[in-house]
Amino acid sequence: MAAKLFTEQEKESIVKAVKTAELNTSGEIRVHVERTCPEDVLDRAAFVFEKLKMHQTELRNGVLFYLTVDDHQMAVLGDAGINAKVPEGFWDEIKETMLGLFKQGDLAGGLEKGILMAGEQLKAFFPHQSDDVNELSDEISFGK
């Protein structure tokens, strides 16, 4: 089961990274982890994005970090509001940094680093607002 891939301390560190990243931006960040991906990774990430109702944020500024451990696949998927503003290749540096840590066996560290980098980059396009409401859960969701 995917939920057993991380220790409780690792889960807490990932959630803390989400909360920290969201202090810089009105963007909403979620993490979803599965053991395997039953289809194309981007198609699956888009399905999970919708299942988590990430497309329902006011500014359409949700970001999903999708990871499958056994298949060694990942996707960073931004909603329409983000994709309309960010330059092409916006997520590439984040993904490369994460992959470097994943290859060292540090899944939690890779997710934390990627999430914090996303928060830093998103603040230029979606700065944190004083009336910002946390529209999505910061908790990690897990598939099979």
UniProtKB/TrEMBL annotation:
Residues 3-119 form the TPM domain. This is TPM domain-containing protein. The lineage of its organism: Bacteria, Pseudomonadati, Bacteroidota, Bacteroidia, Marinilabiliales.
